[in-house]
Amino acid sequence: MKHIYEGKTKSVFELENGNYLLKFKDDVTGADGVFDPGANTVGLSIEGIGKGGLRLASYFFEMLQNKGIKTHYVKSDIENDTMEVLPATVFGKGLEVVCRFRAVGSFLRRYGAYVAEGQELDAFVEFTLKDDAREDPPITKDALAILGILSGDEYESIKLQTQNICAMVKDELDKFGCELYDIKLEFGKNNGQVILIDEITGGNMRVYKDGRTVEPLELVRIILGD
pTM to 2 decimals? Predict the structure, then answer.
């Protein structure tokens, strides 16, 4: 097993079979000790969040695969905090796709003159470049094509996939009395096919219940029961 990359919340290793192994950490993004799924830095560590995030990611990936959605998920080893995934090539130097159901976070900070906090956004999809130094700038369809990151057809395909996947996640959260405000996804190419990669956990989404934010580890307990 070869160490490939050290991310903010996961370590990445290459396996002998050509797949990759993600080891989940107890770190989450944020600032000044406050969790923020849209932040570019590790803000705090939460004991047990690595294993909890892995369990929740496995839950959602298996749910999506049962619905016919292609992802990079192969299997998980909960005891060792690891997930085996298919290899995938990212777009450019990394692209994030945010699906927004309500106005919060960076969307509210940028467009607060035109939108009220919590205003419904009807599954608005926003593409951003993974670039910590430039605070993950949003980028348009035309700019992605001009820079050779995504073709117009790939853009539309990912947008539709995002809205479809996020609607499924939102519907699942609704069953537990939780409301999805926004969620950040990533896609890559495996054998020429665009698939969902990375993770689906409380660490990359904003969830509310009874008018308050649900923290990542609390979301694990709500959905998985412990």
Answer: 0.92
